[in-house]
Write a structure and sequence with these properties.
about 210 residues, alpha+beta, 5 helices, about 30% helix, about 15% strand, elongated, disordered C terminus
Length: about 210
């Protein structure tokens, strides 16, 4: 009579195989990540620009966001060939920051007016408290300086353009004529630039 002894299966070899597979996966993932070129988190700003995400006070960020929304209404009027809306028109529509409400004083108490120059018009918000927020300037490119209509410009492009917003922290800053980029920068204004990149959720303001 022949007797054969069968030993129970051990888990040692299976455990080693599983650990080896895990190590191989981790090594492959680390190698892939190491070989990938990390994209730049932020683009370099010009000396005449400031970052809307990092360089504005909370009050300034709120006003800047409001101006971006209001610009859509302004651009729509230009696209439709209508007169450029006045500050009173925008306030009547309930559009901040042109309408005075409970938050106006808490965000600098800006006094808004429409200022025209050849080829474009500007919405100027003069701050009453520079410690809370600086003065703002929204340039509406292509809007007629006298009658509020666009002359010889593409209305569609006006609607698609991004808002051109400038900030001056000096309460005494004035708008030069002509208010081109170089003249504004020389007068103490800085263009507000919104950058949405890989570092938006990871970078905090120091």
């Amino acid at each position: 009579m022949h007797t054969q002894v069968i030993r129970p299966a051990g888990a040692g070899h299976e455990t080693l195989a599983v650990l080896g597979a895990c190590l191989a996966i981790v090594a492959a993932a680390a190698g892939y990540i190491g070989l990938r070129e990390a994209p730049p988190e932020t683009a370099a700003l010009a000396a005449t620009q400031i970052d809307a995400r990092r360089d504005l006070t909370p009050a300034e960020q709120g006003i800047y966001a409001d101006l971006r929304v209001a610009y859509d209404e302004i651009a729509f009027a230009v696209q439709a060939g209508e007169p450029l809306p006045s500050v009173a028109d925008l306030a009547a529509q309930g559009l901040p920051p042109f309408v005075a409400d409970n938050s106006t004083a808490a965000r600098g108490g800006h006094a808004w007016r429409l200022q025209r120059q050849a080829g474009h018009a500007m919405y100027l918000g003069q701050t009453a408290d520079a410690a809370l927020a600086g003065s703002f300037l929204l340039r509406a490119q292509g809007a007629g300086a006298k009658d509020g209509h666009d002359h010889g410009h593409d209305h569609g492009k006006a609607a698609d353009a991004q808002p051109d917003v400038w900030l001056a922290r000096d309460a005494a800053a004035r708008v030069p004529d002509p208010a081109d980029d170089a003249a504004l920068a020389a007068a103490g204004w800085r263009q507000v630039v919104a950058q949405f990149d890989a570092g938006v959720t990871r970078q905090n303001k120091p």
